[in-house]
Amino acid sequence: MVSMPIYGSALLSLCLLTGLTVGRLIGALLGVDADIGGVGIAMILLILGCDASQRRGLMKAPTESGIVFWGQMYVPIVVAMAASQNVRGALSGGVMAALAGLSGVGICFVLAAVLARKGRKEETDS
Amino acid sequence: MSILEGVLIKNGLLTAFALIGVTMLVSYWASEKLTRGRLHGSAVAILFGLLMAVLAGGKNGVADIPMLSGVGLMGGAMLRDFAIVATAFGVRREEFVKSGVIGMASLFLGLFVSFFAGGAVAFAFGYRDPVSITTIGAGAATYIVGPVTGGALGASGEVIALSIAAGLVKAIAVMIATPFLAKLIGLNNPRAAMIFGGLMGTNSGVMAGLAATDPKLVPYGAMTATFYTGLGCLLGPSVMFMIARALF
Fold first, then answer.
1. Are residues B115 and B21 in the same domain?
2. Cβ pair A105:B177 closer than 8 A
């Protein structure tokens, strides 16, 4: 069978559509109108899907390129996302909104440092 | 001139590809020549993006300019999620499994810390009713958790607007601060990225912050961050509100 980039992109799309549906379903089950972990579920599906197709020899270079391309578009897409943020809205909230947003960020940076280091020490110890 | 404008508006996504492509080119050049690579090209590009959004000044940044509406599509949820899932291609499955538990634990820790920090600030600024305190605390989680929680609890429009602003400040702060603080907090491996994603949670902030630090870390941080907003919407109007009501 001929390998084509669209097969990769189609697999990627199916994973994301399934993930978003499952995420919404989990949300609905828990009674919230929000997606819980849709993208994470899609990532797991993609990893499993690629594993399975690789083992069957279905994942050839052209098919792969249909996935890899989108992964490489990630940074530019994030730049576009940054350019469409409501930055004025963030600035217009005044001191209280800024402090409310920043206080958590500050504490979480400290916690991230503590947790990340702790884990690494354990790893080198064992 | 109006002919060109018409073409650019009609082909919005292509206009976006061209604009963002040029932004990337200029950013990577500036990163190499002006900062000698100390500030990653993607970090410069994201800063440029934010700057453009400030100058445009709309609710959707530059996407509110008709000619640049395609930037909103390119940077919107659909393509963003598509690209982020694609970054999972080729990552090692064991990394997710190995750090799964601490990643999920950091998720709850991050949500509680943000709610309490945001709520404490609201209290310090004179808010005394549990609904407002919970809503502003929820905004300190993400700018989606804020209005969802506020809506469910019946918070005032002014408080909901404040919660959105708090969430936006958080997202932008994480975008900008992450590449500068990455070394200091040991953010250079998949495990740390999963912890970081869970603690910060703000999708756009984590994704842009990690992209500006090391694109290889993006799938790991995204994996945990993707659960944050949903969990926040679940806990905000329930557990967090009950805690706030018990305290105030």
1. no
2. yes
